[in-house]
Amino acid sequence: MRGQRTERLVRLAAKFMLAPSKLVSLTELAGKFNVSKTVISDDVEVINSAMTAEGFGHMQVDRGRSGGARFIPLCTGENRTKILQGIAEKLTDPDRYLPGGLIYYSDLIFNPEIALSLGYAISSLFEGCRPDVVMTSEVKGIPVAMFSAYAMGVPLAVCRFRNRPSDGSAVGVHYPSANGDVKTMYIGTRQLKRGCRVLIVDDFMRGGSTAAGMLLMAKQFDAEVVGIGIFIASEEPEIKAVPTYRSLLTLSHKEGKATLFMSPDK
């Protein structure tokens, strides 16, 4: 019996973790494992205790006859500090400095393990916002936004800077860039539903023009933007093109030296 329960706990934990934020019926699980719903509920409590102790998420249970449970990924403050300090240390290598005050980080965000941790960290910043979709812009915003959407159990919508026939019919918006040029971005009309709740996620923000363009795009669909999450935000300029945002790291340039530090929680 002990061996059977151990196997069931492992299989249950795997099922919840492979589909974050997705509600799984306890009644269906009880039928699958040929045990009572009470037994499954007890198993969920054991899994919840283990996940909470490890600091990477918790189980949320919906009570009732047709209730279920879901795994909510979370990045605790302690884990977030550990992850971001490690990334900031890597990014302060002088070999990563690029012209224009930029830093090379593509190798990190295109690493699935790191992108997953960043996605969990951003989703934790917006816990309770309950978006229907995560929106980002191509190309480097995609990995972090994809794992943010994965953690929240919602789809990803990608704004492109060139309309592609494979996207079907699309909506385009014009927005001003930081240097005064006017740019255009597009999104397929099938990617956003009118009136949906949108979380904007991007890899980098300097003046905020790209994020502002995505705000305009959401407006075309009468969508409600529930937040803007950024991996790295530049300290300058202080005034951005978007009213509010939250970032994981802040890039500062002082005395000709680039430094990265954890963004203050706000």
Description:
There is one protein chain. α2 crosses α3 and α6 (112-125) crosses α7. By secondary structure, this protein is of the alpha/beta class. It is globular, with a radius of gyration of 21 Å. It folds into two domains: 2-73, Winged helix-like DNA-binding domain superfamily/Winged helix DNA-binding domain (Arc Repressor Mutant, subunit A, Orthogonal Bundle), CATH 1.10.10.10; 77-262, Rossmann fold, CATH 3.40.50.2020. A six-stranded mixed beta sheet has the order 7-6-10-11-12-13, sandwiched between helices. Strands 1-3-2 form a three-stranded antiparallel beta sheet. It has eight helices and 13 strands. The chain starts with a helix and ends with a strand.
Summarize the entry for a quick read.
37% of the residues lie in helices and 29% in strands. The protein has 266 residues and is of the alpha/beta class. The mean pLDDT is 91.
Query: What's the total number of strands?
Result: 13
Largest β-sheet summary: 6 strands, mixed
> What is the terminal separation in angstroms?
49 Å
| CATH fold title of the largest domain | Rossmann fold
Give the amount of beta strand, in percent.
25-35%
Q: What is the H-and-E element order? A: HEHHEEHEEHHEHEEEEHEEE
- CATH level 1 name of the largest domain: Alpha Beta
CATH architecture of the largest domain: 3-Layer(aba) Sandwich
User: Outline, from the CA principal axes?
Assistant: globular
Rounded mean pLDDT is 91
Q: How much helicity do the residues have?
A: 25-40%
- The strand order across the widest sheet is 7-6-10-11-12-13
